[in-house]
């Protein structure tokens, strides 16, 4: 396996991605094109949580998928959106352009997002699959498209009271574009299939976020699988010792740790894996 960091550019803006590339297996006697996942970690749009980067990427590798971690735009001198949408499109195009050289199945590009990164993925799943919105947000200049998404405790509706961001100043730092405040309202029948999970006891992102998104997908007959676990804090990642903060038992949860196996089963059922 090869691990390498890259700098990508859109206009005058640079951002980083990190690739986790699978090697070909000599025993197979032929080359294999692997699916790939683009991972958007959480971090409240103020940092990129490393607990949701390499551990997640390596687990996807273990199931026969290349992985790329996208370090998307954070709150700063510029808002998160619409820059983050272009970063995702550029990353997909970059992957598509090297599909042959890297043995990537460009028809099986999966997006996975956690918490704030889940908002990036959910929003992109609405904007990038709608021709009018794709043009409005300048995504039509990029090639390639994703096939499905995986969301873990995602921020969906940023206007829900008592749920992240729950602060008008922060909300406007993320984006002043009200059209992007509610990812569920961007969903259309053209949006891609989704696997979604959250815990009922999530103290930062209210459960209504995932319920709204899943309901909208279901209403439009977009394939979706939803798992609402009965316990667990926000930001569990795997819920195992691999992503546990040292000495903090609240990051361990053997029930929610099953989400990753369920997600891989779903990918297989949807013919994106195996």
From TrEMBL:
Top-level enzyme category: hydrolase
E.C. number(s) listed in UniProt: 3.2.1.8
GO biological process: xylan catabolic process
Molecular function in Gene Ontology: endo-1,4-beta-xylanase activity
Domain BD-FAE-like residues, every copy: 31-211
Top-level lineage group: Bacteria
Keywords: Carbohydrate metabolism, Glycosidase, Hydrolase, Polysaccharide degradation, Xylan degradation
Signal peptide (UniProt feature, chain positions): none
InterPro entries: AB_hydrolase_fold, BD-FAE-like_dom, GDXG_lipolytic_enzyme
PANTHER family according to UniProt: AB HYDROLASE SUPERFAMILY PROTEIN C4A8.06C (PTHR48081), PEPTIDASE S9 PROLYL OLIGOPEPTIDASE CATALYTIC DOMAIN-CONTAINING PROTEIN (PTHR48081:SF6)
Protein name stated in the entry: Endo-1,4-beta-xylanase
Organism: Companilactobacillus bobalius
């Amino acid at each position: 396996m090869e691990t390498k960091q890259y700098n990508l550019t859109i206009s005058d803006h640079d951002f980083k991605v990190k690739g986790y590339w699978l090697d070909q297996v000599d025993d197979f006697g032929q080359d294999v094109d692997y699916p790939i996942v683009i991972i958007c970690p959480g971090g409240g749009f103020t940092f990129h949580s490393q607990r949701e980067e390499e551990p997640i990427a390596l687990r996807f590798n273990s199931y026969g998928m290349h992985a790329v971690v996208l370090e998307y735009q954070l709150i700063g001198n510029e808002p998160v959106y619409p820059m983050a949408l272009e970063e995702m499109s550029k990353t997909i195009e970059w992957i598509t352009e090297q599909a042959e050289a890297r043995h990537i199945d460009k028809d099986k590009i999966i997006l996975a997002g956690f918490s704030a990164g889940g908002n990036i993925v959910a929003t992109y799943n609405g904007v990038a699959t709608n021709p009018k919105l794709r043009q409005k947000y300048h995504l039509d200049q990029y090639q390639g498209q994703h096939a499905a998404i995986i969301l873990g405790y995602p921020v969906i509706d940023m206007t829900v009271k008592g749920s992240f961001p729950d602060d008008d100043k922060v909300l406007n730092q993320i984006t002043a574009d009200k059209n992007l405040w509610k990812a569920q309202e961007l969903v259309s029948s053209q949006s891609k299939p989704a696997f979604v999970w959250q815990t009922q006891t999530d103290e930062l992102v209210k459960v209504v976020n995932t319920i709204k998104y899943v309901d909208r997908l279901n209403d439009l007959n977009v394939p979706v699988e939803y798992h609402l676990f009965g316990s667990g804090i926000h930001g569990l990642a795997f819920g195992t010792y691999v992503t546990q903060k040292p000495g903090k038992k609240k990051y361990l949860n053997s029930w929610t740790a099953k989400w990753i196996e369920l997600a891989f089963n779903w990918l297989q059922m949807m013919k994106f894996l195996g």
